């Protein structure tokens, strides 16, 4: 395919399950998701601290002689909201970077049966014959125009 | 700023139960009927605990009036998720009925079991429904209630003293139970006033506090019985 | 390879496309029980909390027991699945989704109980910190508010943790169906195509979620244990409660998982996927947790006994050889003796043996929470205020109907979602083939 003159980022590969042992699959493996999750955690921590600060200073009530801004109990709330922030950030990042929720472009239901779809979206007219030839090389390949 | 407290003299307490009745009348505590009472759901903000010591015929009976101890470090307060149970500036352990959602956590945390739950909406046998105290709110089903040291009387006395532009004095205010006690075993007053009767009793060598080792710092002093 | 994959897809999607009379029967039976339970709850809300057996001084009873129990059951799924994902245990693949579904449903049911047990349940929203004109906030020093935050975080995390790996399977269902079903699953699949980028992002997201959800799960049951250990009640104020409750939660969770897996295996004919090896592995895990649970109980009991505080010893003897002793020793049998025999001896560690041991553990763990709550509350410091508690029929109806609710949710879930992750199973099978 690449020999036919298609840039690697234009080739669409769709599989029914992750296939780590194929070279094409290593593409896009790098991601900043971990950092974004940490950032989400920090946002969660900040919002927890803000919530606690507002809540505990607006009614500084004495209960059982505990300090108004009690660290140990507050740490629990901070921890939970930090984790919630990280989890939500992860899911949002997944939805955005994996382009979930977009209208399906190049796709074939046969992928779900275990077929591997290799294709090019909107190939320019001069590339079309070369692409078709390249795709027909492997035995058992089934070239479609969708 | 007063700090309200009470002293109970176990030597003079006769266990007559007048305090319990007076408390019911003053604080609009609904009666629950014999069936519910038998299941342990009677609400006595103050109760007279009876203990027998020794074996028959050499038996001695002891009485101990127990109400909310208005602890300085009350275990019931921090566990409440809605601040229904919290501490006031003058040392009272307040219960805001309207803010209570009925988790009953405070009642579990209270080592004295001085808190009571409204299992049903309150009702009174006629004609008791005509004697409700207008100064005390009724509690609906699902809230906790407990001894308030007759906070409505404290409020009234404080307002009266303020209207006359004078500090509140010892004897201006007393609780229904202390008022009703025929033996004067219950004494109510300001612990911050070193000359008040309750302060002097609290400093007495006979004074003990109930379950003091739990660190609750109760504001009720029990004057132990002198061995006879 | 492709034929095998076709077979996998076919087998695992069969429950979605073929509805038998058994499905309707199950839904009808369990649905009726759930409706019965809901009406019992409505009766309680209408008449007042007094219809239950709760009384002074035992203000918490079967509802709080069931709360801790269900939150405990919820610890099987996400926690175990997250750990198995992180260590990349290959045998996890058919197990994770049924486990994660248990977490989601058990948490939903467990989170109902604090509301069921409220005196004024219509004010339950006061636990939430929402802005209001009087700046009234919940008391962040109350363990119940910690519960609120921990359980909601865990619920949100678990539902997402369950949902994310379902997306590719929704896409499979979408591609295999027509009409209305195709549109619904198309919506759920969120336009999943299966590009390498999507797979990478999904797997990274699952790793992050697994790392994040493990401490959350541990914190949830620690905080549930704080509901008890923060109050000055004999036998409650114990520093061991955090880990003790977490271990107990995982313990009962694994038992719940084994029971659910066996039910799925039989009803959905998935004998080819849920193999004896899975039960054997989970059985070993259950055995380990039984030993750990026994260790914690030994610690808790021995330290109390040695400390010899009068108020604690009164509760201690109440459970050990007085009124609560029958329940106590039933618990020890179900939680320790039975698993040790059935799972410790290899000959008995069959699927049947695992299921029997799990039933014993589930029952024993419910009793464990009951025995932590009731004997202590009925026997606090002042002898005058000692009391006892017996659940009333309405409590049995409400608590019992939650088991029906769990089954109902699970039956419907297995009907709508492939209960074994299709793509993970294929990836596992191909992974072995591809590497070899």
Would you give the CATH topology of chain C? Formate dehydrogenase/DMSO reductase fold
Through-space gap between termini of chain B? 40 Å
Structural class of chain C: mainly alpha
Largest sheet of chain C: none
Low-confidence stretches of chain B: none
Tell me the quaternary state.
heterotrimer
Number of domains of chain C: 1
The topology string of helices and strands of chain C comes to HHHHHHHHHHHHHHHH
Find the CATH topology of chain B. Alpha-Beta Plaits
Biggest interface, and residues per chain?
A: A-C, 67 and 61 residues
Spatial extent as radius of gyration of chain B = 18 Å
- Strand/helix succession of chain B: EHHEEEEHEEHHEHEE
- Proportion of helical residues of chain C: over 70%
Shape of chain B: globular
Keywords summarizing the entry:
heterotrimer; A: 146 residues; mainly alpha; two-stranded antiparallel ribbon; 2 strands; 5% strand; rod-shaped; C: 436 residues; Formate dehydrogenase/DMSO reductase fold; 0% strand; globular
Walk me through what this model shows.
Helices cover 42% and strands 5% of the residues of chain A. Chain A is built from three helices and two strands. Chain A has a two-stranded antiparallel sheet. In chain A, α1 (33-58) runs antiparallel to α2. The longest helix of chain A is centred in the middle third of the chain and has 27 residues, at 71-97. Chain B has six helices and ten strands; from the N terminus they run βααββββαββααβαββ. In chain B, strands 8-1-10-9 form a four-stranded mixed beta sheet. Chain B is globular and about 45 Å long. The termini of chain B are far apart. Chain C has a single domain, classed as Formate dehydrogenase/DMSO reductase fold. Chain C is built from 16 helices and no strands. Chain C has helices at 2-17, 21-47, 62-73, 77-86, 96-116, 143-163, 167-176, 179-189, 196-229, 241-267, 276-307, 310-320, 325-344, 351-377, 393-416, 422-435. The longest helix of chain C has 34 residues, at 196-229. The radius of gyration of chain C is 23 Å and the shape is globular. The model of chain C has no long low-confidence stretch (mean pLDDT 89). Classes of the chains: A mainly alpha (146), B alpha+beta (228), C mainly alpha (436). Chains A and C meet through β1, α1 and α2 of A and α1, α6, α7, α9 and α16 of C.
